[in-house]
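Deliverable D4.2, example record:
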Amino acid sequence: MQQPRYWIARDEDGYWLVPARDGGWDERSPFIGRVGYLAEVADLDGIDLGLPES
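Output generated by the structure prediction step:
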């Protein structure tokens, strides 16, 4: 399975398109669109997106 280029992340402000690399959260942009199915990722496989603590 290949690593995705972007992930869609959610916080209290909405949904974000986040580059799938270390520090990607700092380069996020608002996600506006549709997807047919989103699977929750539990194991980030060693990548620290820098997401804020929930």
